[in-house]
Automatic annotation (TrEMBL):
GO biological process, one term: L-proline biosynthetic process
Family: Belongs to the pyrroline-5-carboxylate reductase family.
Lineage of producing organism: Bacteria, Bacillati, Actinomycetota, Actinomycetes, Micrococcales
A Pfam family annotated for this UniProt entry: F420_oxidored
Positions bound to NADP(+): I7, G8, V9, G10, V11, M12, A65, V66, K67, P68
Highest taxon above the source species: Bacteria
Protein name in the entry: Pyrroline-5-carboxylate reductase
Protein encoded by which gene: proC
Signal sequence residues: none
Length: 264
């Protein structure tokens, strides 16, 4: 599998590193700008810590997991040390493969990826797109890396802003819904720990039903909704509050922000 370098081991870098270890990558170097962070993560995942510029030396595969705002600096640091033919996978929201290719030079293949935080428990989903110099073998190696963190789908880069709005930011929408449900449950008199347990297991169970073959959200919702019953009353209140339109507006805002980040 060759050597993997992970540049930036914050929330997402650590989640994908855990996945990479599960997928069998056993020669891993990690770097982070925060003092002591790389050493701590290296110890936890049986990897080696190195400064950013040195971490990529001899690496066949490089995972870039720093915030978009800090990416130009990280790219500048790693470009001189990259091996010819290395594959660089970036998870930075809104940063195009063209921008990365400009900064990294002509000798590497770039793959843009949008993962999500359930990667932490191997239940993530990542959408990947090939840059202009990334052929099938580069996509395959990126897929191997990311498959340890969950499912992987390939999309044209033109859809990256949209998939960021769906699955990249998506877990936050569900946590937001969970917070609202717990608070409302407490408002209805249920103790907070019990309300939290009920909401968490309801989301887990509903997600399990949705993940079954041929599952359709509309049919699943209809199965819960008895004529003249409690669910019908709840859904009518959601519709009166235009929640469906609000979800669409929220996702358009996320896609727009992803696009804005491309211009920065
Ligand atoms: N958190 C999420 O749900 C998702 C995040 N992403 C993307 O993942 C990237 C990382 O996000 P998070 O992990 O949430 O951020 P984070 O802030 O938790 O981690 C970023 C890490 O990069 C380190 N860093 C910054 N500059 C560096 C440099 N030059 N060399 C080495 N390390 C450096 C920071 O010290 C930090 O530990 C972002 O580009 C974000 O767009 C993508 C999908 C989902
Ligand atoms: O909020 C963000 O910008 C990152 C990208 C997708 C999820 N978190």
């Amino acid at each position: 599998m060759g050597r993997l370098a992970v540049i930036g081991v914050g929330v997402m870098g650590e989640a994908l590193l855990a996945g990479a270890r599960r997928a069998g990558f056993d020669d891993v170097v990690v770097a982070d700008a925060a003092p002591g962070r790389a050493e701590q993560v290296a110890q936890q995942y049986d990897a080696t810590a190195a400064p950013t510029a040195e971490a990529v030396e001899g690496a066949d595969l490089v995972l870039l997991a720093v915030k978009p705002q800090y990416l130009p600096e990280a790219v500048q640091q790693i470009a001189p040390g990259l091996s010819a033919g290395a594959v660089v996978v970036s998870v930075a929201a809104g940063v195009t493969t063209a921008t990365l290719e400009d900064g990294l030079g002509p000798n590497v293949a770039v793959v843009r990826a949008m993962p999500n935080t359930p990667a932490l428990i191997g239940e993530g989903v990542t959408a990947i797109s090939a840059g202009s110099r990334a052929g099938d073998s580069a996509l395959e190696v990126a897929e191997k890396l990311l498959a340890g963190a969950g499912e992987v789908v390939t999309v044209p880069e033109s859809l990256q802003d949209a998939v960021t709005a769906i699955s990249g930011s998506g877990p936050a929408y569900l946590f937001y819904l969970a917070e609202a449900m717990v608070d409302a449950g407490v408002g209805l008199g249920v103790p907070r720990p019990t309300a939290t347990q009920l909401v968490a297991q309801t989301l887990r169970g509903a997600a399990g039903l949705l993940a079954q073959d041929d599952a359709h959200p509309t049919l699943l919702r209809e199965r819960v909704t008895s004529p003249g019953g409690t669910t019908a009353a709840a859904i009518a209140a959601l519709d009166a509050g235009a929640v469906r339109a609000d979800v669409a507006a929220a996702m358009r805002a996320a896609a727009r922000r992803s696009q804005e980040l491309s211009g920065q």
